[in-house]
Structure formats: structure tokens, C-alpha cells
Design a protein that fits this description.
Oligomer: single chain
Structural class: mainly alpha
Number of helices: 13
Strand content: 5-15%
Order of helices and strands: HEHHEEHHEHHHEEHEEHEHHH
Strand order of the largest sheet: 1-3-2
Distance between the termini: 83 Å
Shape: globular
Radius of gyration: 23 Å
Helix content: 40-55%
Number of strands: 9
């Protein structure tokens, strides 16, 4: 009789390590403060005396994380970390599936129609609203609702049940979601830790999602051929080399240098305070943004918010803030191209 296969475990692996993995999996993500509480609770139970969370050092937590990584690696899981781009750069550790795409992972908890919608949402964030002129990488509720059903163009591309590369596709049978179902799904994705919703009402990928989807985002939205242009949809911080979806960009439109807000002070100190783009040497003003601020920092947005607060500009037919900003950008681009042609 063949013995059942058991994954190898690291040296010294014990019940405390096992409990840490179970607790981590249940939470999905941990900050250091949350990790201190988890490790303290585990040690209190295993050692029979109360352990103060504040007594758990970075080294102790790092040892638990390292042992957990070694234990789960044979099962195609991993623990990776990244800094939160928005909340003071706090480091976050995520328990992730290392070898499957997001659609496969979400298919275990969401319907095929919901998974198809999530892919459309990603396309909005990282394709339609992520351009050379405006890198938003977020959507407001209005745009999220408009993606409730597949566009006619995409339906025609999948009319034979195959995608552009001739592979079987679920789009042909995708009938979309009702608006109420979209709102419910968005709330679920926020609760599950895949999305975050800002005070301004924009949905964007959470730190956990960026950690888990890093490779997929690059493979899906960046060009990897030798003929690809320098500008790519997924870009990385010049300082920490992690993905930037919220931060600052060079004022030169075609330049690819980006910085997280949380990295820029330290980065400029290393350059003796000289605030010039390291690539094109354009003066770095700090008022060209990546993320929702590409919309919310604009005067037209501020005026529109004021008008709506006073009761004007409302109604179901009103375009979303994001759509209005993108339309304004397109008009400005057309005017600029026309001026260049006349010149």
C-alpha cells in the first residue's frame, strides 16, 4: 500500500507555526501590528502564560513568516509583502496563491458572470483609464455600473465562442450583471480585500490584490515584444521598484519615471535635494499624479463637486466624474494635435 504524500516541513516546525499559518490564511493579510497580536495569542496558548503583543519583535515575526513560507511553498502558496501606497507606507504581508491567475482564484467564490465582470473592471482600470495623458487606474461608481454588461464590440469579437487567439471564451455566454448585482459585488470585493473604496468614491486595487496580481497585471497589460514602446501601462516606482497605482509622475508626458508619495522624500534626499527627473531632467513639481488624484486634483473636478453639493448637475443622466475628466483630456489632446498639425 502506497503511503500518502505529505509536504516537507521546515526544521523546527511545530504547533505554533501551524497555528500561525492557519491564522494567516483566515485573515489573508497581516500588518506587523496584527502579526504581533496573532503571534502573542499563539504563544500565550502554547506556553501557558500571557504574552504581551508589544514584546513580539520584528525578528520574531519575521521568523514565523519565514517558516510559514517554507512550509506552504510546496503547495504553490507564498507569503509576500508590499508597502501600502496610501496609508503611510505601512508594510503588509499577504498569503497568496503563487501559481494561478486571478480569474481561477475568484471562480471558487464568484459566478462566471461575476468573474467576467471583474475582468472588465480590470480593463477599465488598467487599459481605458490608464493612458499616456491620464493614469487613473481606478473607477468611480458610475463607470463601474456602465461595465455591468459586455460591450457590443467585445461581444462581436467573441461571437463564435472564441477569443482573439482562437481560445474558448466565456464572454459569448456572458449576459452581464444587473446594477444591483454590480453594487453588491463591489461591496464583496472590498470586504474580501481585493478592492478599496476611497472617500472620493473611487475603487482601486488593494495592496493585497497588487501583491497577488503583480505578475498577471504585467503579463496582461504590458507589451513584452522588442518593438514595444517605452511607455507601459504597469509602471514601477523609481525608488522601491514596486507597482505604482497611487503616486506622482514626471511632468513630461512621455517619460516613464514614477514615484510613490511614501518614497519621494527619501528618494530626493539621496539626490542632494535636486528635484529633477532622473531620466529626462524635467523639473519635478510634485503636482502630476498617478491614481485618483489625476482626476480629483483638477479644477474642473473641484468645481463640479461644488456644484453637485449645491444641488446642481445631478440626475441619473449625468456623466460620472471620471468620464467627464477623461472627456476633457481627450478634447485637450485633440486641440493640441490640431495645433501641432497647423504648425
Amino acid at each position: 500500500m502506497e503511503e500518502e504524500w505529505e509536504p516537507p516541513v521546515p526544521a523546527g516546525y511545530n504547533d505554533a507555526n501551524r497555528a500561525f499559518i492557519q491564522g494567516f490564511m483566515a485573515r489573508g493579510t497581516l500588518t506587523f501590528a496584527e502579526g504581533q497580536k496573532l503571534v502573542a495569542a499563539i504563544l500565550s496558548a502554547t506556553e501557558g502564560e500571557t504574552v504581551d503583543p508589544q514584546s513580539i519583535t520584528q525578528d520574531t515575526f519575521a521568523n514565523f513568516v519565514r517558516t510559514a513560507r517554507e512550509a506552504v511553498e510546496p503547495l504553490d502558496y507564498d507569503i509576500r509583502s508590499s508597502r501600502d501606497q496610501i496609508r503611510n507606507g505601512e508594510r503588509i504581508w499577504a498569503f497568496i496563491n503563487a501559481h494561478s491567475d486571478p480569474a481561477t482564484q475568484m471562480a471558487t467564490t464568484h459566478t462566471p458572470e461575476e468573474v467576467a465582470y471583474i475582468k472588465r473592471l480590470m480593463d477599465l482600470m488598467f487599459d481605458e483609464y490608464n493612458t499616456v495623458r491620464m493614469e487613473v487606474m481606478a473607477v468611480d461608481e458610475g463607470q463601474a455600473l456602465k461595465a455591468s454588461r459586455p460591450s457590443k464590440r467585445r461581444e462581436s469579437q467573441h461571437v463564435n465562442g472564441e477569443d482573439e487567439e482562437g481560445q474558448p471564451s466565456t464572454t459569448a455566454s456572458d449576459r452581464g450583471l444587473k446594477h444591483s448585482e454590480v453594487l453588491s459585488l463591489l461591496s464583496s470585493l472590498v470586504a474580501e480585500g481585493w478592492l478599496e473604496k476611497s472617500r472620493a468614491g473611487f475603487y482601486s486595487l488593494s495592496p493585497r490584490a497588487l501583491i497577488e496580481m503583480w505578475s498577471w497585471l504585467v503579463a496582461t497589460y504590458n507589451e513584452d515584444s522588442e518593438y514595444a514602446k517605452d511607455w507601459q501601462r504597469i509602471k514601477f516606482c523609481e525608488a522601491c521598484k514596486e507597482i505604482v497605482t497611487y503616486g506622482q509622475r514626471c511632468g513630461e508626458r512621455d517619460c516613464t519615471i514614477r514615484l510613490h508619495d511614501i518614497c519621494q522624500d527619501r528618494y530626493w534626499r539621496t539626490r542632494s535635494g535636486e528635484k529633477k527627473c532622473p531620466k529626462c531632467e524635467t523639473e519635478w513639481t510634485g503636482n502630476h499624479f498617478v491614481g485618483e488624484r489625476a482626476i480629483t486634483s483638477r479644477q474642473a473636478y473641484q468645481r463640479g463637486r461644488g456644484g453637485r453639493a449645491n444641488g446642481s448637475g445631478s440626475g441619473s443622466g449625468r456623466r460620472s466624474d471620471l468620464e467627464e475628466a477623461v472627456a476633457a483630456q481627450q478634447e485637450a489632446a485633440a486641440d493640441e494635435d490640431e495645433d501641432m498639425a497647423e504648425a
